[in-house]
Automatic annotation (TrEMBL):
This is Putative olfactory receptor 56B2. InterPro entries: GPCR_Rhodpsn, GPCR_Rhodpsn_7TM, Olfact_rcpt, OR51/52/56-like. It is found in: Membrane. It comes from the Eukaryota. GO terms for biological process: cellular response to lipid. It comes from Lynx canadensis.
Length: 322
């Protein structure tokens, strides 16, 4: 199924292309992988509910119409987009064994995943810059972080990420898939798909590394620099109370950043050791696309006082109206 048969008289390998890929799910646990559908479905449901709630609260609460919460709103949209790009297909594989995926559909999913992951990284940079200006240059904050600045930086990030990730599916689509079409994964990952090609995929691996180092690497460097400057500024404060207040606004942000980038590093390392234990990178890859969307709004709601008050208000209104 999905394989083009080679006729004895034909010698040109490039004429034969598989018509679809088969996403096999989680390697090594195919017989009982359907049991994973319940926790994954609950995580997806939590991600959607929590992020929609965050967007409603930010929209309704006038005190939350600030740059920091605008970026949080963009992050909520990106998170829902990322989870929705992969979860319906994963659940279809686990519940209905709907493993087939057409080549264009697979390359489209590959593009959207890359786009959303680097967009999340970009939004973390915007949040770090916002916190840096708020803590290190508080008097100049309203003049620097204006509505115009927020819109420009968000549009720049969206354009940067949507354009820089185009070569990933384009290069993958240029490979020849002539025999093997079973992907030991739940989603169309670049390395998982191109490993099935019959021709050289060096360019794909090089671009993937280039993308990771230039975009994610520069983002991480900017975030690290922002927090070093924040810490330096906070340590100079005479009041311990002022210092803890300044840091409390950053802790939720730091928790999420550490989780986001640590998992990316772990996936990269385990991908090389995937021959011995192929389940680990696949499981991590899936969890990395569904845990942050569920975790981000919860961590922010727990750590942020204004957001917490907005949540209580929204819940009370709903209780009263019902």
């Amino acid at each position: 199924r999905g394989k083009s048969l080679k006729h004895p008289g034909d010698s040109n390998i490039s004429k034969f292309q598989v018509s679809e890929f088969i996403l096999m799910g989680f390697p090594g646990i195919h017989t009982w992988q359907h049991w994973l559908s319940l926790p994954l479905a609950l995580l997806y449901l939590l991600a959607l509910t929590a992020n929609i709630l965050i967007l409603i609260i930010i929209n309704q609460e006038a005190t939350l119409h600030q740059p920091m919460y605008f970026f949080l709103g963009v992050l909520a949209v990106v998170d829902m987009g990322l989870a929705t790009t992969i979860m319906p297909k994963i659940l279809a594989i686990l519940w209905f064994s709907a493993k087939a995926i057409s080549l264009p559909e697979c390359f489209a999913q590959m593009y959207v995943i890359h786009c959303f992951v680097v967009m999340e990284s970009g939004i973390f940079v915007c949040m770090a810059i916002d916190r840096y200006v708020a803590i290190c240059k508080p008097l100049r904050y309203p003049a620097i972080v204006t509505d115009s600045f927020v819109v420009k930086v968000t549009v720049f990030m969206a354009l940067r990420n949507s354009l820089a990730t185009i070569p990933v599916p384009v290069l993958a689509a240029q490979r020849h898939y002539c025999s093997q079409n079973q992907i030991e994964h739940c989603l169309c990952s670049n390395l998982g798909v191109t490993s099935l090609s019959c021709d050289d995929r060096t360019i794909n691996s090089i671009y993937q590394l280039l993308l990771a180092w230039t975009l994610m690497g520069s983002d991480l460097a900017l975030i690290f620099l922002s927090y070093v400057l924040i810490l330096h500024s906070v340590l100079k404060l005479n009041s311990a109370e002022a210092a803890s207040k300044a840091l409390s606004t950053c802790t939720s942000h730091l928790i999420l950043i550490l989780f986001f980038y640590t998992v990316i590093v772990v996936i990269s390392i385990t991908h090389n050791a995937a021959i011995t234990l192929p389940l680990v990178p696949v499981l991590l890859n899936v969890l990395h696309n569904v845990i942050p969307p569920a975790l981000n709004p919860i961590v922010y709601a727990l750590k942020n006082k204004e957001l917490r008050h907005g949540l209580y208000k929204a819940l009370k209104l709903n209780i009263k109206s019902s």
